[in-house]
Specification:
heterodimer, A: mainly beta, six-stranded mixed beta sheet, five-stranded antiparallel beta sheet, 11 strands, B: seven-stranded mixed beta sheet, four-stranded antiparallel beta sheet, 50% strand
C-alpha cells in the first residue's frame, strides 16, 4: 500500500511568517509530487508541482523535494490570512501510472 | 471555460433510494475519478476510469457503481444508499500522458446526506 503522510495540524503561524508544510511518502519510485490547497467546503486546487530534487519557487510558494529521504515540503513566505486552508500533498507512483495518492492534509491557520 | 461539472451539489435522501451523481468534463480528458472526503480521513478514491469503457476500483468502492460510456461523462451511482455514505464527493479528471502527470482538475463537490 503506497502511503503519503502529513501532519494533520493545525499549524498556526502569524501573518507575515513562513509556513512550512511537510509530507513523506513510501513509494521510493514516485515521480511527480503535488501540493493542492483546499478551502473549507471547496474543491482542491493545484498550487505547485515538482518532479526533480531541489527547490521550485513560484511567487510566495516554494516546493522542496528530497527523493533520497522521500520527503517533500511546501514553504509559504509572507503568510497571509487568505492562505488559511488545508494543504494536500499528492504523489504519483512509479510504473507509468499518474494516479496520485493523497495525504490527509495539513490545516494551516494564519492569524493576523 | 475548462471545467468539471457535478450535479447535484447538495442532496438529502433516504436509505435505499437509488441516486446518481453526474460528472461531466469539457477538457477531453481520458482519466476521470471519484473521491469521497470525510473529516480526518482525507480524500479517498472510490472508482476511476482510464478511458471510455475502462473503469477500476479505488480504495473504497463498496456500495458504489460507475460507468464510462462517453469520454466526457462519469456518473457515480449509489444503488441503495446508506447513512455511512453521507459525505462530500468530488469528481476529478486529468489528461492522460500530459504534464504534469497526475495533475487533477476537480469539480465543485457534491454534499450528500443519507438519512
Amino acid at each position: 500500500q503506497k502511503e503519503v503522510e502529513q501532519n494533520s495540524g493545525p499549524l498556526s503561524v502569524p501573518e507575515g511568517a513562513i509556513a512550512s508544510l511537510n509530507c513523506t511518502y513510501s513509494d521510493r519510485g514516485s515521480q511527480s509530487f503535488f501540493w493542492y490547497r483546499q478551502y473549507s467546503g471547496k474543491s482542491p486546487e493545484l498550487i505547485m508541482f515538482i518532479y526533480s530534487n531541489g527547490d521550485k519557487e513560484d511567487g510566495r510558494f516554494t516546493a522542496q523535494l528530497n527523493k533520497a529521504s522521500q520527503y517533500v515540503s511546501l514553504l509559504i513566505r509572507d503568510s497571509q490570512p487568505s492562505d488559511s486552508a488545508t494543504y494536500l500533498c499528492a504523489v504519483s507512483p512509479s510504473g507509468g501510472s499518474y494516479i496520485p495518492t493523497f495525504g490527509r492534509g495539513t490545516s494551516l491557520i494564519v492569524h493576523p | 471555460e475548462a471545467q468539471v461539472t457535478q450535479n447535484p451539489r447538495y442532496l438529502i435522501t433516504v436509505t435505499g433510494k437509488k441516486l446518481t451523481v453526474t460528472c461531466s468534463q469539457n477538457m477531453n480528458h481520458e482519466y476521470m475519478s471519484w473521491y469521497r472526503q470525510d473529516p480526518g480521513l482525507g480524500l479517498r478514491q472510490i472508482y476511476y476510469s482510464m478511458n471510455v469503457e475502462v473503469t477500476d476500483k479505488g480504495d473504497v468502492p463498496e456500495g458504489y457503481k460507475v460507468s464510462r460510456k462517453e469520454k466526457r461523462n462519469f456518473p457515480l451511482i449509489l444503488e441503495s444508499p446508506s447513512p455511512n455514505q453521507t459525505s462530500l464527493y468530488f469528481c476529478a479528471s486529468s489528461f492522460h500522458g500530459g504534464a504534469p502527470a497526475g495533475e487533477l482538475f476537480f469539480g465543485e463537490g457534491s454534499r450528500l446526506t443519507v438519512l
